[in-house]
């Protein structure tokens, strides 16, 4: 089992690079955003609670996210080869909970891919995405709120994973293939040492 966390601000290219990682390594992709949007669209109780946070640009409570992830891991045989965690963890307590949850299953996070992109470029990307996709959370006010939350609550994870020797800073601007080539080089090195 080879587990990767793909890390970066909203609009940094996590989804795009995750698609390439799935194809390259045969991993199962867990996008917490997609899982939560699915619950919201289906009107589940979890979806209603999640929507009350997401629509305000806030993070989902940790205990709620852990329940969602445990459910996905326990009920998805495709996750047995390894997982790309996209959008989780977002806080140090979530990182510790993920470590515990994986240890309980005899596994761990092997690498954290950190896509690093300038805030001005992120805002431009998210506004364009909102125009193309119609996502209601891709408007300027919510984007600014999401970036503030990212910088205050999520970016401390960079140091947490650096201290564990798992963080790989990847410049997230430029050609998609060049970015992926850098990610692949780093991950192949990690896999060869596992």
Write a brief structural summary.
By secondary structure, the chain is α/β, with parallel strands linked by helices. The chain contains nine helices and five strands; from the N terminus they run βαβαααβαβαααβα.
Task: Describe the overall structure.
- The chain has nine helices and five strands, in the order βαβαααβαβαααβα.
- The chain starts with a strand and ends with a helix.
- The chain has a five-stranded parallel β-sheet, with helices on both faces.
- The mean pLDDT is 90.
- The longest helix has 18 residues, at 176-193.
- It is of the alpha/beta class.
Kindly list the characteristics that best describe this protein:
single chain, 194 residues, alpha/beta, 9 helices
Average of the residue pLDDT scores: 90
Task: Outline the low-pLDDT stretches.
Answer: none
Structural class: alpha/beta
Radius of gyration, rounded? 16 Å
Per DSSP, the total helix count is 9
The total strand number stands at 5
Bulk shape: globular
State the end-to-end CA separation. 10 Å
């Amino acid at each position: 089992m080879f587990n990767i966390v793909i890390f970066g601000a909203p609009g940094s290219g996590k989804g795009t690079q995750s698609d390439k990682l799935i194809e390259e390594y045969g991993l199962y992709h867990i996008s917490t955003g997609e899982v939560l949007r699915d619950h919201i669209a289906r009107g589940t109780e979890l979806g209603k609670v999640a929507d009350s946070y997401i629509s305000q640009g806030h993070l989902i409570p940790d205990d709620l996210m852990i329940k969602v992830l445990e459910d996905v891991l326990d009920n998805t045989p495709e996750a047995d080869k390894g997982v790309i965690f996209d959008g989780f963890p977002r806080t140090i307590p979530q990182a510790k909970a993920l470590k515990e949850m994986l240890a309980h299953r005899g596994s761990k996070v092997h690498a954290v891919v950190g896509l690093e992109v300038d805030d001005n470029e992120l805002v431009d990307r998210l506004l364009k995405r909102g125009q193309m996709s119609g996502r209601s959370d891709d408007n300027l006010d919510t984007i600014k709120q999401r970036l503030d939350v990212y910088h205050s609550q999520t970016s401390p994870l960079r140091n947490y994973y650096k201290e564990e020797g798992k963080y790989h800073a990847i410049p997230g601007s430029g050609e998609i293939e060049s970015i992926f080539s850098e990610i692949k080089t780093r991950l192949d090195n990690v896999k060869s040492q596992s």
